[in-house]
Amino acid sequence: MMKNSHGNWLTMIGFVNAALIVLGVGACRDNAQSHGGAGRSAARPSEAHSDNAPSNRIDVPASVRQNLGVTFVEVERRPVRSTIRIPGQYELRPEARRDYHVMLAGRIELLVTRHQQVSKGDPLFHLDSPGWLEMQKELVTSLNAMKRSHADLAVAEANLNELKQAIEFIEQRLANFAKAQMRQVELEAQLADKRNALPRVEAELGAAKVGFNAAHSSYEVTLNRAASFAGVPAEALDPDESDEAHSHLADREPPWRSIRRLTIRAEADGVVDRLPITNRGWVETGDLVLDTVQPTMLCFHAEALQTDISKFRNEQLARVVPPPGGGFDLQDYAEGHIHMGVEAHPERRTISILHLSERNPQWAKAGMTAYLEVYTNGSETPVNAIPESAVVRDGLERVFFRRDPKNPDVVIRVTADLGASDGRWVEVKSGVRAGDEIVLGGVYPLMLASSTSGARQSGGHFHPDGTFHANDD
Fold first, then answer.
1. Domain of residue 51, residue span
2. Is residue 176 domain-shared with residue 216, that is, in the same domain?
3. pLDDT tens-digit profile of 373-420?
4. 316 lies in the same domain as 461
5. What is the pLDDT of residue 36?
6. Which residues lie closer than 8 Å to 152 by C-beta, 6 or more apart?
7. Which of 245, 271, 293 delimits the end of a domain?
8. Distance separating alpha carbons of residues 440 and 434, to the nearest angstrom
9. 327-348: buried (b, 16+ CB within 10 Å) or exposed (e) per residue?
10. I need a surface site. Which of 1, 208, 231, 450 has the fewest CB within 10 A?
11. β-strand 106-110 against 460-462: which pairing, if any?
12. 219-232 confidence digits (pLDDT tens)
């Protein structure tokens, strides 16, 4: 396959050279002649530019860049020598997945579809359950018991107040008779009876309070059970379950009495992933109806060799970069810190390394393979570096193409003065500055256009259809 590819490139070179000599140059000259003086006057600046411009310049207007697939990448400052690159893949964090199980058996009516985006509070499905009717029956029983406890407490409090008022009234009458030096044996006997009854009435009040508290606790527990079944807070089923509402207990109607079927809502934003239940299907208690995931809650999981374990430490700075090829933006990466696994894998001779970042690149998805770049030497001075794929060999030279900072439609061929490499990025010792744009995609057509049989041309320009025309000397 390599021979075929090499042959194709040679064929293309021959075709390009022949076409450029026979058609391209003639077409340019015919075009200038057909336009008369105006064409000649327009051509003169181009010729003057070609004569004065360096021989390593090539015109690549926007239409040519689109046809040739020319893309650019900026020169980065990075520590090339101390970079270790480890393959791995993105995974969902454990908290990214949320399962929705039913607490009661019943019939399901789905309200969402697979891969649908849902927000917190959106309805997911209805549950028509006989168990909920039984739960409502328990709530009614508990609510009625609480109402009776209110009545019993009110009666006990009234009896005690009435008894105390009677005792106070009799004591007042006896005091008046004592002032008149009169004695009322009958009133004294009534007072004694009332005082003897006081402990019993106070005990009845205490028992009523105990019953009152027990009824409230029972209703609260039953209400919390119902809220757990319904998947909502208890306040949503009965917002007036408070001491302030006791006086209106007999008149109010709790919201749970009007609920005929349960509506389960999303507890967090996410995307519906699995739907193992068919619509209108029957589910048993504990069955999974659906689950949602938050696609952006990712972590990167890489496997490093155990022999490199001394080079890593927790909270070490690292970045996740896209895999080569595929049209990924090499400078769309995720920076963060690494966390080493608690144990190694003896069979694979590796140790897990997790990378967490606050922002994930646009291309990051669960299961997506990429590379983890770890900087093992934090004291290394960063150097100017470009992707190795931007450097091509032309005969005995290695060259790359830098975009002219003053004219974005021109690229400059540069003989590469390279240094250390980490396998993906290579140090450039001269000829570039941080932030300069380097040709990444479409570098081979530019190399072919700037070289003929091992000898460099004197510069030129591309036509909008992608064909190259060398400048006339």
1. 2-78+383-470
2. yes
3. 898 877 788 899 999 989 999 888 899 999 999 999 999 999 999 999
4. no
5. 42
6. 208, 211, 212
7. 293
8. 16
9. ebebeebbebebbbeeebeeee
10. 1
11. unpaired
12. 999 999 999 999 88
CA distances from 333 to 247, 323, 360 (A): 63, 11, 7
DSSP 471: P
Q: Which two tokens stand for residue 416?
A: 């590469």
Q: How far is CA 176 from the centre of its chain?
A: 85
Any idea what the Cα angle at residue 361 is, between residues 359 and 363, rounded to 5°?
150
Report the candidate in 272, 389, 267, 376 with the shortest Cα–Cα distance to residue 326.
Answer: 389
Residues 199 and 317 in one domain: no
Q: What's the CA gap between 401 and 415, in Å, rounded?
A: 9
The span from the CA of 1 to the CA of 7, in Å, is 10
CA distance 295 to 92: 7
Phi, psi of 405 (to 5 degrees): -60, -25
Q: Specify the pairing of strand 83-92 against strand 298-305.
A: antiparallel
Number of structural domains the chain divides into: 4
188 & 121 share domain: no
Task: Please give the Cα distance from 400 to 440 (Å, whole number).
Answer: 9
φ and ψ at residue 419, rounded to 5 degrees: -125, -130
Residue 122 has, within 13 A of its CA and on its CB side, a CA count of 16
d(CA 355, CA 301): 7
Element (H, E) at 109: strand 106-110
CB atoms within 10 A of CB 231: 18
> Helix (H, G, I), strand (E, B), or coil: what is residue 273?
strand
Rounded to 5 degrees, φ, ψ at 168 are -65, -40
What stretch of H or E contains 440? strand 437-441
Q: Are residues 251 and 149 in the same domain?
A: yes
CATH number at residue 340: 2.40.30.170
Q: What share of the chain is helix, strand, coil (3-state, %, to 5)?
A: 40, 30, 30
Which two tokens mark 425?
């990025």
Torsion of CA 61, 65, 71, 75, to 10 degrees: -20
Q: How far apart are CA 374 and CA 354, in angstroms?
A: 11
Question: Is the confidence at residue 37, as pLDDT, over 50?
Answer: no
Q: How confident is the model at residue 362 (pLDDT cuts 50, 70, 90)?
A: confident
